[in-house]
Design a protein that fits this description.
InterPro entries: Aminotrans_V_dom, MoCF_Sase_C, MoCo_sulfurase, MOCOS_middle, PyrdxlP-dep_Trfase, PyrdxlP-dep_Trfase_major, PyrdxlP-dep_Trfase_small. Its cofactor is pyridoxal 5'-phosphate. By secondary structure, this protein is of the alpha+beta class. Among the domains are: 1-58 and 321-489, Alpha-Beta Complex (Aspartate Aminotransferase, domain 1), CATH 3.90.1150.10; 100-313, Type I PLP-dependent aspartate aminotransferase-like (Major domain) (Aspartate Aminotransferase, domain 2). Helix content is 26%, strand content 24%. α3 (67-86) runs parallel beside α13 (323-333).
């Protein structure tokens, strides 16, 4: 580990250990590596803030005559001075505007900047989406836009150390241009030299040919002229690096405090040079910003102080009061020490990941950025990467994230709201991106690999309380799941197939009348081409989105016990827990008349929606607005089998039936010394008498004279972690399965089935099951 670890002091590791023990006990058992998203608050911050609020009375600062208001105003002014001092900003030169965060600050700059048709807005291609949002204001006023390559911006910064004279050509007084760049890229951790600010202030962009950088628009090719103002997006940089506004002087700078010290969220700051503020044209003035205002006349005059003009409405004054403790914590450690600490961690992580190899010698990890050439000062707090299998194929970041979550590892995946950096580092063309969009890919979805190339990345990032043990836990996870010990290793294991020496029998039959609610086990039941009669016949949906709920949304659904009473011709629903509620009974013969569209696993179908009285019962017991729908016989969804035959599945996710073997459950429990109940797998059929996972090699199953096709394995998700009696989550089941039942990013357990003929018949517990083994997997 680099000498910078532990804040670069001899006692640093002891200080870090003490911090974790005293202030970050809520991190015990967790590996938090998403500090670029939000760093973690210390318990002392919450406690000191709570004490402050309990021991003092604070009122609305706009109620200036009240003592409580006066005290609040004094504290807010003190906080403003404190924030300015932290960044070494003189309040004679800068004003500090409190905002809801960096994004709100960027919006204020964009909507107030004096763009004209002669103006330009330039931004680095690795700028955050919130910076790109300024384009809408620039474009609306006819300004020309330029996307600056990272290497161009860095070259400008390096040239700042040389003799560059102020450009006086075309420096028209009434033309103002804006250039924005991040202090640290939130995708890769690459830092831009802050000396770039000085070069940009010398209007160096007026002397550089930017035609190739111009963003396509209706505007003709434009050569910048006039004065350049600089916007520094310090949202990422400020959390782990010192920023000295007495040395490097952007015209605007934005920060979010939760990225610096975790708490509070929803508070940030916009630094504005007072010499520039008078040129800004604020289009809206809310409460508290006006010195004079008339209702009958269209006359208003804003306050003279910049922060008074820009802080619309009542600022979050109670949250702002919490910032002092966070700032004091960072001062105590010093930002220089924190910079060394996170730099050491990122270097350590980079070196460890870059040396990983599969048994066949291929690299495990593809790392983005220039970590190998960065100095200690240039080392950021981020390592972004993707992982590869031994055959060179990419591991999807969705799979990686899901598996990491099971192990208590918190990371970020995707493009991190930075499309330019994502495109650059992944080597994607604009046509590639347009192709992704045409295929339905959107931000935040699970389309992580398209045409064998990743659409995003995996990001680990570090904060001042991150330890080497955190990083080692992450690296151990990577080695366990993503480094192949042998070139032919497969993660999904199954015992060798043999000729069955005993009879396989159907040992349990379960139907689930209401999708994702409790099961109803029976000794015998009628079967049809759509599945077990009344299986997933009903579903609960969100009344607003009409998306079907699952136990992942509402774990308490597991405690709902629907029972189909054939004799009484009723669906009776009770609760398995202690919820004090009367049972609900719905006639089976009643089909609602109101038809509504329903979304099941992103597929659309139609359902019949029940009345408010029925829906109120479910809303009451589940504590969330929901509506009951019954599958519409006329519009049942279907899935294609390998033979291209269609099978209606109603509200089921994938297929009419799901089968598991009891031996497979027993094997899992014996492997891990666990006691996972077979019910968590929510199978329609459980069979006895075969080897564990023998069902993986079946192509067909006969029950008596009736044949069922095996459609394929069931991919498992976190629902198997939900106890089907209590609705409580348990981390074990999916984590266990991931270690030996994972194949190409999916965790499999059980097989989907469908009837080969459209007949109906009755099955019984104890029926003989005759499987047919796939032709290419013969028995020994």
């Amino acid at each position: 580990m680099d000498e910078g670890y532990g804040y670069g002091t001899a006692q640093g590791e002891d200080i870090l250990s003490k911090l974790r023990a005293e202030r970050f006990r809520h991190l015990e058992g967790q590996v938090y590596l998403d500090h670029a998203g939000a760093t973690i608050y210390g318990s002392h911050q919450v406690e000191q803030h709570a004490t402050l609020l309990k021991q003092n009375l604070f009122g609305n600062p706009h109620s200036s005559s009240a003592v409580s208001s006066q005290r609040t105003t004094e504290e807010i002014d003190s906080a403003r001075r404190d924030v300015a001092a932290f960044f070494h900003a003189s309040l004679e030169e800068y004003d500090v505007v409190f905002t809801s965060g960096a994004t709100a600050g960027l919006k204020l700059v964009g909507e107030s900047f004096p763009f004209t048709r002669q103006s330009s807005f330039a931004y680095s291609v690795n700028a955050h989406n919130s910076v790109l949002g300024i384009r809408s204001f620039a474009n609306a006023r006819g300004a020309t836009m330029f996307a600056l390559p990272v290497e161009l911006l860095d070259a400008v910064g390096q040239a700042a150390t040389q003799s560059i004279h102020q450009d006086e050509t075309n420096n028209e007084k009434d033309v103002y241009n804006l250039v924005a760049f991040p202090g640290e890229c939130n995708f890769s951790g690459a830092k831009h030299p802050l000396s770039t600010i000085e070069a940009l202030h010398r209007n160096v962009l007026n002397r550089i040919p930017l035609e190739k950088c111009q963003v396509p628009s209706k505007q003709p090719v434009h050569h910048p002229q006039g004065k350049w103002l600089v916007l520094l997006d310090a949202a990422k940089l400020a959390g782990t690096n010192p920023i000295d506004l007495s040395e490097f002087k952007p015209d605007f700078m934005v920060v979010s405090f939760y990225k610096l010290f975790g708490y509070p969220s929803g508070v940030g700051a916009l630094f504005i040079k007072k010499s520039i503020a008078r040129h800004l044209i604020k289009p809206f003035h809310g409460g508290g910003t006006l010195a004079t205002s008339f209702s009958a006349l269209n006359i208003s005059r804003p306050h003279a102080a910049t922060h008074r003009r820009f802080e619309d409405g009542t600022i979050p004054y109670l949250s702002i009061l919490a910032c002092k403790t966070g700032l004091d914590t960072l001062r105590e450690l010093t930002m220089e020490s924190i910079q060394r600490h996170v730099g050491a961690l990122s270097t350590y992580t980079y070196k460890a990941l870059s040396t990983l190899r599969h048994a066949n010698g291929t690299r495990v990890c593809e790392i983005y950025g220039s970590h190998h050439v960065r100095s200690k000062q240039e080392a950021g707090s981020i390592v972004a990467c993707n992982f590869k299998r031994h055959d060179g194929s990419y591991v999807g970041y969705t799979e990686f994230s899901a598996l990491a979550s099971l192990h208590g590892i918190h990371i970020r995946t995707g493009c991190f709201c930075n499309p330019g950096a994502c495109q650059f580092y992944l080597g994607l063309t604009t046509m590639d991106l347009l192709s992704h969009v045409n295929q339905g890919h959107v931000c935040g979805d699970a389309m992580d690999v398209i045409h064998d190339r990743p659409t995003g990345a995996i990001r680990v990032s570090f904060g001042y309380m991150t330890t080497k043990q955190d990083v080692d836990a992450f690296l151990a996870f990577v080695v366990q799941y993503y480094v192949s010990a042998l070139p032919t290793t497969t993660v999904m294991e199954a015992p060798p197939m043999r000729i069955e020496s005993t009879t396989i029998r159907l040992s349990k039959i379960t139907l689930f009348p209401i999708k994702s609610c409790g099961g109803m086990s029976v000794s015998g039941w009628a079967v049809g081409p759509d599945g077990l009669f009344y299986d997933r016949e009903w579903a609960l949906v969100d009344p607003e989105t009409l998306k079907t709920f699952s136990q992942k949304d509402l774990p308490k659904m597991a405690t709902l016990r629907p029972v189909v009473d054939l004799e009484a011709q009723a669906l009776n629903i009770t609760m398995s827990d202690s919820t004090p509620v009367s049972p609900l009974s719905i006639p089976l013969t009643y089909v609602p008349s109101l038809t509504t569209n329903v979304s099941v696993c992103a597929a659309d179908c139609q359902g019949k929606k029940y009345d408010d009285l029925v829906n109120a019962w479910f809303t009451n017991v589940l504590g969330r607005p929901c509506a009951l729908v019954r599958v519409s016989k006329e519009s049942r969804r279907s899935r294609l089998t390998p033979s291209k035959a269609q099978h209606a599945i109603g509200f089921a996710n994938e297929a009419p039936f799901l089968l598991i073997s009891r031996a497979s459950v027993t094997l899992m429990n014996s492997k891990f010394g666990s006691d996972v109940d077979e019910d968590v797998f929510r199978a329609n059929f459980i069979v006895d008498g075969c080897d564990a996972h023998a069902e993986d090699r079946w192509s067909e199953v006969a029950i008596g004279s009736h044949s069922l096709a095996v459609l394929g394995p069931c991919g498992r998700c976190t629902m198997v972690n939900i106890n089907q009696t209590t609705g409580e989550s348990e981390a074990g089941p999916l984590k266990h399965l991931a270690s030996y039942r994972r194949d190409r990013g999916k965790i499999y357990f059980g097989q989907f089935l469908a009837l080969k003929a459209s007949d109906s018949f009755r099955i019984q517990v104890g029926d003989t099951i005759a499987p047919f083994v796939k032709p290419h997997e013969t028995s020994e």
